[in-house]
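Worked example (supplementary).
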Amino acid sequence: MDTHGSGSRARAAWPRSVDEALAEQERMRGLADLTSPGPAPGNVRLVAGVDVSYARQGDALVAAAVVLDATTLETVEVALVEGTVTFPYVPGLLAFRELPPVMAALEKLTCGPDLLVCDGYGVAHPRRAGLAVQLGVLTGLPCFGVAKTPFVFGHQEVGEERGYGAALTSDDDEVVGRVLRTQPGVKPVFVSVGHAISLDHACAHTLRLAPRYRLPETTRRADHLSRERLRAITL
DNA sequence: GCGACAG
DNA sequence: ATCTTGTCGC
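After joint prediction of all chains, the assembly is encoded as:
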């Protein structure tokens, strides 16, 4: 895929310390498009999901980028990258740990997706600059995040039926995401926008990508493939 | 000051 | 993220 264009403008020295990361994160947040409605499900042909698996011992990791046909959910292309950890896990700075290998995987793709889905949060983040925000800015593609566990924002009860949701609200009454029930009677997921897409569209995509399981197929497949490759090189 | 804290 | 046995259900 084309990782230049609007993406190259956002690229800078990749942080190696927490202080540098905080400064870079603030810069990236300023480059994010948080107002465009972006593509509705009907306007997306290819959607890509990314994920990273880590070895329990040592610093080996494997990143996966999986492209699906947005209509049939068939896998169109897969890219895997083996690498090593270059940044520690720090709550709020996950992007600096995961994005280097994720970008490498996306660069191996021959087809250019119209939309990116990642594990974790976008603007529903302490500094409004989660993983999905930074990935969207770096690639220039519409991007949103689907997280599996709560982070910093609370919400009201969510109906048990599939498709029901409740706003994730910041202290100042700002809607920064939505807790969304993707399967009836199953723990909901946390959707938040990253770049160039609206929360409504992000939730619509999430529901279409999760017809059978709690998590979007993009995330499920990227997770399976990266984990499978990791075990192969770890043993 | 102390805990909590996406993956 | 990763570790980790059995168990309930389609």
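Two points are worth noting when inspecting this output. Residues 52-57, 61, 89, 97 of chain A lie near DNA strand C (CB under 10 Å from a C1'). The mean pLDDT of chain A is 94.
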